[in-house]
Amino acid sequence: MKDKGCGKLYIISAPSGTGKSTVIKRIMETRKDLYFSVSATTRPPRIGETNGSSYLFMSHEEFEEHIRKQDFLEYAEYVGNYYGTPRKPVLDQLCRGNDIILDIDVVGCRQVKKAMPEAITVFIIPPSLDELEIRLRMRNTDTEDKILKRLERAKMELAEKDTYDYVVVNDKVNRAAEEIIKIMEHE
Ligand code: ADP
Ligand code: 5GP
User: Fold this and answer.
1) Best substitution site from 10, 50, 58, 105 to test ligand 2's pocket, by max atoms within 8 Å of Cβ?
2) CB of 157 sitting under 6 A from ligand 2
């Protein structure tokens, strides 16, 4: 078999509620060869989320044990919970020549880009902050307190958008997904 070489690592970030998960799902329907890195988190599962495919849900103690064992490629604290990327599956897939998507926040992106400068970074933005708030509320998964904290965090994250290789507006899911697929083809 022909050697595929190393796979490409794509980092996709966006303020919570922008529609990143929705857009990534659409991309993966087209690019069935892409591997999605399942993160670990201490946040409780939302309705419809499954352990092992949405996230690896775990306790704070378990997460901190993985930090100690250096099992994470990167990790960050986000609105009161830990989120982290298990290192081994990412490196294994890249070595096999498979392309990978990491759905991580701006703090995690900085860590990965430092360790792996060849990573391609895409920041998805909402059409406006008002629309972001509408989407966060429409999703109906967070308490009022968490929604306000996520909106506050969104402002900090949006200020970092120019540090990414590409910025894509999620106005329409299909259009945004198409734009990111084109970026991947170009890369
Ligand atoms: P994220 O992963 O960025 O936190 P989600 O994918 O959970 O966001 O989307 C947040 C909410 O916004 C969901 O209810 C989703 O259906 C909706 N949504 C996503 N993309 C769009 C869009 N382009 N237009 C309108 N609503 C959208
Ligand atoms: P949510 O709770 O809405 O699923 O995710 C909250 C934020 O955590 C989002 O910005 C998401 O991209 C980010 N996130 C998810 N997994 C990881 C991860 O493994 N590492 C980091 N740093 N952020 C993550």
Assistant:
1) 105
2) no
Domain count for the chain, please give it: 1
| Entry pTM | 0.95
Q: How far apart are CA 137 and CA 121, in angstroms?
A: 27
Q: Which residues constitute the domain of residue 98?
A: 9-186
Query: How many A from CA of 64 to the centre of ligand 1?
Result: 30
How far is residue 59's CA from residue 45's CA, in Å, rounded to a whole number? 12
The domain that contains 13 carries what CATH number? 3.40.50.300
Q: Is residue 1 part of a domain?
A: no
pLDDT in tens, 1-29: 556 689 999 999 999 999 999 999 999 99
| C-alpha closest to that of 37 among 94, 112, 123, 103 | 103
Task: Please identify, by atom number, the ligand 1 atom nearest to the C-alpha of residue 171.
Answer: 23
